[in-house]
Amino acid sequence: MLEAKREILKRFQTQSSSAVEIPKEYHGFILGKGGVKLKELEKQTATKITIPKETESSGRIVVTGPKEGMLHTVETVLTFIHGFYFLHASRN
Hints:
Elements: H1 2-13, E1 15-21, H2 27-31, H3 36-45, E2 48-50, E3 60-66, H4 67-91
Antiparallel strand pairs: 1-3, 2-3
């Protein structure tokens, strides 16, 4: 029983969380149609991505999960938004 408690505590200690401010106009691109992109990224990285509701004024996206997965998710989201921004900026 004690060993099981230690294992659970160990897993919780390796959990990390990070908040990233992303303009709301990009949230739909992170979600994908029907939330498919979001779910796939969560599955690949074993993270939970929390995106504020449309009615909320905040653009703060929170990523929680194993540190490695959390870092990968944040990097992926930022890279995607950066690329999307420059693609559309070059068209204007």
